[in-house]
Give the backbone structure.
Amino acid sequence: MLKLELRNVVKRFGENTVCNGISLGVEQGQMVCLIGASGAGKSTVLRCINLLEPIEDGEIFLDEEDISIPGLNPQNVRSKIGMVFQNFNLFPHMTAFENAILAPKRIRGLSKVDLNAEIEMLFERFELTERMHNYPDQLSGGQQQRVAIVRALAMKPEVMLFDEITSALDPQLVGEVLDVLLQLKAQGMTMVLATHEMQFARQAADKICFLKDGKVVEEGTAKEIFNTPKQAETKAFLERALK
């Protein structure tokens, strides 16, 4: 059974069609990587899934429920679908711990006492215990991104979305964030990533979707896409990206 499914999703910004009939299925526990050049529609797909952008046409299903119906409460959906952005988006006036506990307190309706142990375990899991009470500007970029992942996981989501989460990091910090994704994969988290990290996608993804001009040009296993791409556009992109 598909955990998440997009059917012919269309998203426009004015005259610009950014998602042009995108269909995509994600099974429980899969890591699906969206690859393609900047402007291909990868980030917009993620924003549509998380209801940050309304769609013009098509359907988006989570656990066989259409979550793209107009008027649906987006907060209920976002409590099930966590999203981590490339620029962290941490509140600068709050400590790492305060950033992580804010949404569960408000949306899950739990007290700080109820959540303390749970949040502390997440910080420990990602080797951030000593940084819990630091402010974002006291953390490295890799630490800030791991805090952003902790914050999303604190909502106990069923699906996690990651939008180019290593693109704002110095090269030496990329590995520590990608290691977190491997941990989540090993624990069975369902994930969709927009990424330029081709070697990571090749090694870790269960499914690769190559996007161009707002369409899924080709999809398959990492082995199929990287070793024997069927479409000329896919082959040309990978030749450039893997140089």
Q: What stands out?
A: The chain has a mean pLDDT of 93. The two ends are 37 Å apart (CA to CA). The beta strands are 2-13, 16-27, 31-35, 57-62, 65-66, 81-84, 159-163, 190-194, 207-212, 215-220.
